[in-house]
Specification:
By secondary structure, the chain is of the alpha+beta class. The protein has three helices and three strands, in the order E-E-E-H-H-H. The chain is elongated and about 70 Å long. The chain starts with 9 loop residues before the first strand and ends with a helix.
Length: 111
């Protein structure tokens, strides 16, 4: 049997405002009939609002917070993979610092 189609209540649109700047708009309708129309300068902020609205409608708790990062998607995936490999309760940054200290000791010893 086919999976039921997901109802998309909200959508994200990119548009140019009168000043010529690109902005992002989240639009849609809540289950009680109220219309939503919010504009954002940053796409990340619009995506966060879109996700929050969908979670609100589905009455599900927010599983994780969206955070801004300097990492590329590939770097983020690499960091998540490394974190899973070292296990819970261990710091990835401390492990990297320890490794780098060992690497420097080997280089100084002529290895």
């Amino acid at each position: 049997m086919a999976r039921p189609k997901k109802i998309q209540r909200f959508k994200l649109q990119e548009f140019s405002n009168p000043s010529g700047n690109v902005s992002f708009r989240v639009t849609g309708t809540l289950p009680d009939g109220r219309r939503i129309r919010k504009n954002f300068k940053e796409k990340a902020d619009a995506l966060r609002e879109l996700g929050d609205l969908e979670l609100k409608v589905e009455k599900k708790p927010d599983p994780r917070q969206a955070l801004r990062t300097l990492l590329t998607p590939e770097e983020l995936a690499d960091a998540e993979s490394a974190k899973q490999q070292i296990g819970k309760g261990r710091s990835l940054s401390r492990l990297v610092a320890h490794y780098e200290a060992l690497r420097e000791q080997v280089e100084e010893a002529g290895g």
